[in-house]
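Hi support team,

I submitted a single chain yesterday and got back a structure, but I'm not sure I'm reading the token output correctly. Could someone confirm the output below corresponds to the sequence I sent? I've pasted both exactly as they appear in my results page.

Thanks,
R.
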Amino acid sequence: MAPKPSDPSVAEKPPAVLRPLREGDVEAIARWYAKAVVLAGSPVSLTDLLKPDGDRLTLVLTAGQSQEPSLLITVALDDPEAGWATVALLAIAAPEHRELAARAVALLEADLGHEARHIRAAVPADVGLALYFWLRLGCRPIAADGRLWMIRDLEA
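Hi R., thanks for writing in. Yes, this is the structure output for that exact sequence:
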């Protein structure tokens, strides 16, 4: 017999939350950032990500009991032109966090609302997992500017 949801032995998992990067997150991210799996873009200095940039959003996904960031995502709005959002960096602490990464992209798309009609991400050539990750999200590959871009039109 399956335990009832009200049973105290069934621990409810805290929801995954996509929120802006905070200075206090850097220490937790630094523990895994050097070995992160990059699913889009290329890594940059963590301190550079804390610098304000009007058209760039730097977000983290927190989930689980610790609520420490397990994913970092940077998005440039109106890039390459109005109506587009470019995922400049999507890094996860470990390959097994790719389901959290899919949830983060879904949350990001919902948060973008009317700010973007299209989303794109440059896939690192040496990470096959990244290509399959974006394909599973419904993106289509397009080669341009010497890169492989994964593009998806967002629902209006």
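A quick pointer for reading it: Helices lie at 26-33, 46-50, 98-112, 128-136. Let us know if anything else looks off.

Best,
Support desk
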